[in-house]
Amino acid sequence: MMTTSPASQIAPLIGAVESFLAVLDAMADQHPTNAPDMLGARAILDRDLQDLRSAHAEGDEQTVALSLLAIVNADAGMADSGIDLTRPPLQAAWGTVQEAAAPVLDALAG
């Protein structure tokens, strides 16, 4: 396990999650029928992102790992809620989150 989560690895992940949240907001505006599910998913991801930021700032590696896992596994919960991550804007934004998470996951795995 790594001893620190370098900002050079965490910063792109935070940016990717923030971008995904913006896309999710836009999709909720465009699809009012699915908006409650999308906004619910957004709230959960936003909380996980805040936890990741705080844990990283405090050097709490365990919470960084847990927050990261919650973020990268959020796709299952979104799919269960009927959020279609294959829609082009969501698919691209979620792919960016997954790509940004990969080096952090690798570093945490050791």
What does this structure look like?
The protein is built from 5 helices and no strands. The protein has helices spanning 7-30, 35-58, 61-72, 74-80, 88-109. The longest helix is centred in the first third of the chain and has 24 residues, at 7-30.
Fraction of helical residues: over 70%
- The count of helical stretches stands at 5
Q: What kind of sheet is the major sheet?
A: none
The averaged pLDDT comes out at: 89
Low-confidence stretches: none
Kindly state the number of beta strands. 0
Spatial gap, N to C terminus = 4 Å
DSSP strand (E) fraction? under 5%
Q: What does the radius of gyration come to?
A: 14 Å
Can you give me a brief rundown of this structure?
81% of the residues lie in helices and 0% in strands. It is mainly alpha-helical and 110 residues long.
Give the topology, please.
Elements: H1 7-30, H2 35-58, H3 61-72, H4 74-80, H5 88-109
Helix pairs in contact: 1-2, 1-5, 2-3, 3-5
Tags for this model:
mainly alpha
